[in-house]
Amino acid sequence: MSIYEELGVPTILNAAGTYTVLGGSKMSKQTLDDMADAAGSFVQIRILQKAVNSAVAKLTRNESAYISNGAATGLYLSIAAAIQMHLGKKFYYITKEEIAKTNIVMFKAHRNPYDLVIGHLGTQYRELSFPNIIFPPTEEDLRMAIDENTAAVYYAQSGWVAPGYLPLDKTIQIAGEKNIPVIVDAAAQLPPVENLWKFTEMGAAIALFSGGKDLKGPQASGLMVGKKEPMDIVSSIGFPNYGIGRMMKVGREEMVGLYSAVKQYISLDHQARGNWCEVQVEKFKRAFTDSKTFHAVRSYPNEAGQPIPRVFLEIVDEKMTPEQVHDFLLAGNPSIYANSDGLNGIFINPMSLEEGDSDVIIKRLLEFSC
Ligand SMILES: *Cc1c(COP(=O)(O)O)cnc(C)c1O
After folding, report:
1. Strand 103-107 to strand 150-156: parallel, antiparallel, or no bridges (unpaired)?
2. Which atom of ligand 1 is nearest to the CA of 75?
3. Which atom of ligand 1 approaches the CA of 211 most closely?
């Protein structure tokens, strides 16, 4: 009996993508072995951190790296580090009143539920411009939004951001004129693998990634990469130090697991992986060519803006709804999870599929359709 059977928790075939609420991604056998190895011995956490962080920095072509327990923590620690840099004293000595005077500049178009962690530090959100194209922001708007209390500019990088922001390079340039660090939330911006160094090469102070999404590290891990100064501060306030970082614990299994996953991700044949995804999309298109229920089209890039194709099965039968398809897939054996993204159809994302999964999904969908 599997552990999930013992617990009475149904497993699912994930056709949606690297969603945290579905488990993010699956670790490779190698990663799991390395984590088991790490769990088998005691080590001094600080020595392990130093070794892992410097190895990951090197692998990702960055000055510094830090393994956190998730990208959301990475954002929290990045903003805390920026506040320390701004106020010029150790975070431990900074009062709530001092933090309350600081602000983080961001485009309204970039607001999202992950950025709520910024407010938990007690700093102010300084929102800029509008989340649409009616009155696009200018460089002057950004310059004017930054004042003497600005500790950082927060920049969300994703496929779902609204229009109404300046490009990252312009943002970095303008923030740089005033020596303000730019923190890039790139949690789901892998692939492409180059993003591990691209944002920081452009001049971002810190870029953060989720370890449990496409990197296929432990679900409770996050990767922060960036410039030495802010990242040294991150290391000094993050786990295992006392203070705000202490509650964001990272186990040696996660540190080693993410290191292992990053190593594998960098040496992965991304071209072949992309081709494999295209083949899956083609399979669906072929299977539903004559369908009176679905019209299959390739959709690119995906919802997070990743350069991975999905197939969109548009419902052409007026009697059917996306909810019915979703529920039908979920109720089967295996239980299949797929999203409609609010459209009249269902997306199949090959990102998290394995060999053979597409055939299982197609078979099930053919039972539903005509
Ligand atoms: C997933 C995601 C996060 C959170 O990542 P975790 O590793 O789960 O903490 C933050 N920001 C964005 C844009 C995300 O997509």
Report:
1. parallel
2. 10
3. 7
